[in-house]
Amino acid sequence: MKAGTGRTIIKTDLSRVDRREALKWIAAAVAAFPALDWKALGAPENITRTLTDPDLLNPGVLWNRTLTAAELKTVTALCDLIIPADDQSPSAGAVKVQDFIDEWVSAPYPIQQADQKLIRQGLAWLDDQSKKRFGKSFADLSDTEKSAICDEICFVPKAKSKLKNAALFFARFRDLTATGFYTTKEGMKDLKYIGNIALPTFNGPPPAVLKHLGLA
Predict the structure, then answer these.
(1) What pLDDT is recorded for position 193?
(2) Where are the domains of the chain?
(3) Is-contact 124 116, C-beta < 8 A?
(4) pLDDT tens digits, residue range 52-80?
(5) Which residues touch 132 (CB under 8 Å, ≥6 apart)?
(6) 53: burial class by Cβ within 10 Å (0-12, 13-18, 19+)?
(7) Is residue 47 exposed (0-12), middle (13-18) or buried (19+ Cβ within 10 Å)?
(8) Which of 109, 122, 188, 209 is the least crowded, having the fewest Cβ atoms under 10 Å away?
C-alpha cells in the first residue's frame, strides 16, 4: 500500500512560508495574467479576495477549508496507510498531508470541486464499510483491518464492478497523498532530490552526458 519510500515536513519560520501560504501566494500571483477570463475558468464571485487584486505580502484567505473534523480524521488515517512511517521518514499524516488535501478539495474551481465530491463520497464509503465489517470507523481500525478494505479498491482495473467508484476514489486520493507528501522537505529528501542547493563550483555537464547527446 505504501506509495513510496520517503517524506518531508515544512517548518514555519522566517526563511520560508508553509504550503497553505504558498497556495495563497500562487493564487494571488495569477493576477499577472489579467487577460484570462477567471469566471469562465470557474472562479466564484464570493471568494474573500479577488484574483485580479492581489496583496502578495498579506494574501489573506482565498477560500475556507471545507472538510469536517470527522472527515479529516479519516483522511489522516488513509494518508498514513498509503505512506506510513519508516526508518527514513515520517508518515504522510505526520507531515500534514491531510491539510494539503483539505486545502485542495476546498478550492472553488471545477477540478478541485469535482475532487471534493469524489473524496467526500469515498470517505463516507470507507467509514460505512468499516462499521459494517468491524463495527468501528475507519480511523479506529487496525492497519490490518484498513488494508482488508483498501486492498479491494487499490487497483482500478482489478476492482469488482460494484467497487469501481470506490477504486476511482482511492486512485485519486493516492495521487493527492503522493503529491502532498513528495512536495514536502522530508519527501524530497526521501526521493534524494537535491535541487535548490547552491554549488561552490560548476564544471559543466559530465563528458559522458555530452557524448551521449552527441555534443562531444
Answers:
(1) 83
(2) 19-212
(3) no
(4) 555 666 766 678 999 999 999 999 999 99
(5) none
(6) exposed
(7) middle
(8) 209
Q: Which residues contact 138 (CB under 8 A, 6 or more apart)?
A: 74, 77, 78, 123, 126, 127, 129, 130, 146, 149
Q: Are 129 and 149 in contact (CB under 8 A)?
A: yes
Which cell numbers hold the place of 33?
495574467
pLDDT of residue 201: 86
Q: At what angle do helices 69-82 and 164-182 cross, to 10 degrees?
A: 80
CA-to-CA distance for 75 and 93, rounded, in angstroms? 9
Gyration radius of the chain's alpha carbons? 21
Rounded to two decimals, the pTM is: 0.69
By CB atoms closer than 10 A (0-12, 13-18, 19+), residue 3 is: middle
- Residue 60, classed as helix, strand or coil, is coil
Angle in degrees, CA 123, 129, 133, rounded to 5: 150
**DSSP bridge pairs for 16:** 13
Distances (CA, A) of 28 to 8, 39, 40, 99: 25, 15, 17, 20
All cell numbers assigned to 175: 495521487
Q: 189 and 90 in contact (C-beta within 8 Å)?
A: no
Residue with cell 482488508: 148
